[in-house]
Amino acid sequence: MHLCKLKTENHQMRLPHRIYWIGIVALLIMSIASCKKTEEEEVTPESMSGNVVFDIPYYVQKGEIVTMSASGIMTPKDAGYKWYITGLYSDTLRANTVTVQFPDSIGVFNVMATAFSLGYYTTVTSQQVTTIDTAWNTSLSGLEDATGYIVDERDGHAYGYVTVGDRDWFNQNLAWQGSGVPFKASPVTAGLFGSFYTWYEAVYEDVCPEGWSVPTAQDWEAFAAALGGKELPFIDNWAGLGSKASAEALLNGDRMWPYSPDNTHTNDVGWNAIPIGYTFSVSSPAEFQGMNKYGCWWSATEKDDDQAFFRYIWYDLGDFPMSYTGKDDMRANVRCVRMHPQS
Question: If you placed Cys at 320, which of 65, 222, 242, 324 could pair as Cys (CB 3.0 to 4.6 Å)?
Fold first, then answer.
């Protein structure tokens, strides 16, 4: 009797402890069920339709104030935009259109526009923007100074020229923007690199200032004779004259012509050839090719009814060959020429 009573008392002592653990297990089950229910109720973000686009040139003048507008997202229609510019602004700029001022110094900045909306994944587009200084021998350096200067009365742009033989030649590319397009569709670059023209624009739209013209085959031959010391036909590769006509130019401190032992860029007469490449008139927007590899300049001389000649310099060859292309196909640079007044 005493033994039974003891067992009963021990059982009564263990009962609350067992109830405690049953409660813990029940709470765990409820918690797991609650988490599962929460996960089931979470909404997976949707993807936006469309791509972020914004309008900003690839090159801007240092210190320039630029207004940028972002668009392109079709769904959702209420998407907002925020901006981030490395080293300049954080992403606290939140608006479809923003106005920013780039630093008064030369540099490269990554501009990013992000579209966002509740319930959607964000989408981002970025573009590099380079600030430049268009003053002579600053962003574009390593050039020889001119021996004379003229001012284009149409837009007030000043050009340097050098006398080579009995002719005066621009020692920089023509920048007239009444025709042609600037490099990378960035207007500020015309002052550094010149504009790009089809043959029809160059010859028939009088792109050169009054008293100057696009060089003919005869003008080019006179240039070769003065630069090379002997007469050379226009239809010729002009061995070694590419080195003598090109400058060891730098753009924001980086060399433009890649190193080649076959093209040493001695720039003998200060003609200052640089490798800005070319583009094609059929592409819109213009897709520039050959940057840091080719420099191309029109001749006013036709090959036939459909094609015209141009001369070019390739970075890995010291020559100054000629070629030809459709009159309305390629866009190239122009060096204006005139007879020297004392010739």
Answer: 242
